[in-house]
Amino acid sequence: MRWSESAVPVRMQRVALVAPSSALRDVLVRVADCALMQIDEEGRPGAPMTRQGIEAQLMTAPRQVAAPLLAESAPDEAALARSGRYDLLAGEAELKGHAAAALRRSGAAALVGWVPTSQLMSLTAALDEAGGAVVPLARPVWSTAPTLLATRGLHHELTPLVQTYGTVPYADVDPSWLAWASYVVMFGMMFGDAGQGVLLVAVAAALRLGWPTWLRRYRAAWPFVAGAGVAATAFGLMYGECFGPTGLVPTIWLSPLAQPVTLLLAAAGFGAVLLAGAYALGTINRWREGGWRTAVYAPSGIAGSCLFLGAAAGAAGWHFHHDAWLVAGGVVALGGIGLAAAGFLAEAGRGGIAIVQASVEVFDLVVRLGSNLVSFTRLAAFGLAHAALGLVVWEGTRDLWHRGGLYAVGGILVFAAGTALAFSLEALVAAIQALRLEYYELFSRIFVGQGEPFRPWHIPVAHGLQEQDASELTRRPEVLEARS
């Protein structure tokens, strides 16, 4: 896969599924088995009525119906009910619903839906033997393709961070890689300890290997734990922290407790870089969603980017006493405010109320920009808290150790318990705070809407029905066409 393809959701193709009416069931069975096509739910108004007989039998099920299955040949529903095969009845009900929604002309039936472009050949080959065909269609202007992010590889394992926030719109950029990178760096800044970072890497290795067995349910989290561990180790080396200020590693950059202001400014600067990236992605997404007009006037597009960059240039000019930067920054910021105000007015309409509404929204835009930037100082604040907790544990341990005897044993216990507490508590806090910054400060600019997830129709086919079951439960396929 080329890098350009990994930066966007999986490309989708609008298709028509075409088959002879007499072979429609066989074709739908293959579609359900391969799970490659999302069938549009729009059908004839009376389509659901054809399922009433099966649904009435399902109502008599003595317990919750198991996961639906499909028989390879058209079954006898009464025999299924007598034998308690409600799983096959449930699968047949879904199939009949799709069959009834098909458009029929001159002995042929057709359904429309979506298929990943890369899977068109696979679906065509699966349907060929049953007499079905897949015909690519142009996408209607009113239709939005469903979204499917990467389905394999490391990229696939990074998508939950984005999918938990919401479904990426089909036109937008897939920010999974960038979201993962920013998340683990923010975590590392708050959890900077080389020793505890190595422990996190060990936990990630255990998750990846699925050992012990009870960890296998959390295996999907291993890339985030591994990245967080590496980032925490790196920041721990820069802070000179290894299970606290033990002196096991030198301080490469700064000691958090000795230079808190510098750390706060660094956190704000890093937040500014992340916000700039979010505005860049937001501008690209607005352009892809609605063209240049949407991109220019959107608060998360060019208008917001101008305000942000102008404010940054003005602040730099004020700090370094550079008048040209200060003036240029002010002009660019005012231009961004003007573009945003024009966009707000266009949405609000005309009249005095519209002007008041647009003014309030512009004021909110400016205030939120400042508050969002200040919010990133929590990276330093929690980093300071982590360092302070490590210092308390280390000072207590050292004081007891120097007394010798049983006090030394107590010091070891204090160090073990304190480190375990700091590791569990601070790791949880850092994980939550990094997620909060990711969603509220960054994703709120990258995305302004939700997409529709790709949901391929999938029901497993019961290939393993015993011969006597098959003879009792199935009948000639043409019966389905007669009933439909």
Summarize the structure.
With 484 residues, the chain is mainly alpha-helical. It is built from 19 helices and five strands.
Overall description:
With 484 residues, the protein is mainly alpha-helical. It folds into two domains: 9-146 and 456-483, no CATH class; 155-446, no CATH class. 62% of the residues lie in helices and 6% in strands. It is built from 19 helices and five strands. Strands 1, 2, 3, 4 and 5 form a five-stranded antiparallel sheet that branches. Strand 3 (103-105) and strand 4 (108-116) form a beta hairpin. Helix 9 packs across helix 16. It is flat, with a radius of gyration of 30 Å. It starts with a helix and ends with a helix. Mean pLDDT is 87; it is low at 43-52 and 476-484.
Poorly predicted runs of 5 or more residues: 43-52, 476-484
Radius of gyration: 30 Å
Q: Report the β-strand fraction as a percent range.
A: 5-15%
Write down the domain tally: 2
Estimated helix fraction:
55-70%
Structure annotation, total helices: 19
What is the H/E order? HEHEHHHEEHEHHHHHHHHHHHHH
Please state the average pLDDT score: 87
Look at the helices and sheets and give the structural class: mainly alpha
Main sheet attributes: strand count, strand direction, barrel closure: 5 strands, antiparallel
Question: Count of DSSP E strands?
Answer: 5
Alpha carbon gap, first and last residue: 43 Å
